[in-house]
Amino acid sequence: MNVEPLLDALGLQEDAARTLADDLRTQIDELHGRLREAETHLEHLAITRKTVTALADRIPAQADSPDLPEHPDYPRILAVFNEATGPLRARDVCEALDHELLPKNIEGTRAKLKRLIKLGILTEADVGSFTRK
What we know:
By secondary structure, the protein is mostly helical. The chain is 65% helix and 7% strand. The mean pLDDT is 90.
């Protein structure tokens, strides 16, 4: 009986099994690397959560701002005052809002500024000169 063909077939199967084992080892190494990256990311997130939680206790509580009227200009007016370095007149606010500098627009803006004073958000530094409280 000639065992040579049997040994050749066995050799082919051994080569295939060895290749499969090598491929699986490579995949395992890649998965170990990805697992390490994921665990490191989780550690960083846990540290960040701990830091943010610790800092949250140090942030002063802000009083709720009063409800603004429904008109879309009010948040924009507040944004103008947040960027301002000093008091503003109704005309300045009108310009910042890109409204045409017509008397009706300036007076409408002045009325909105007066309403924000009543809400306690703005104050009138001088007559016609408004600033954030």
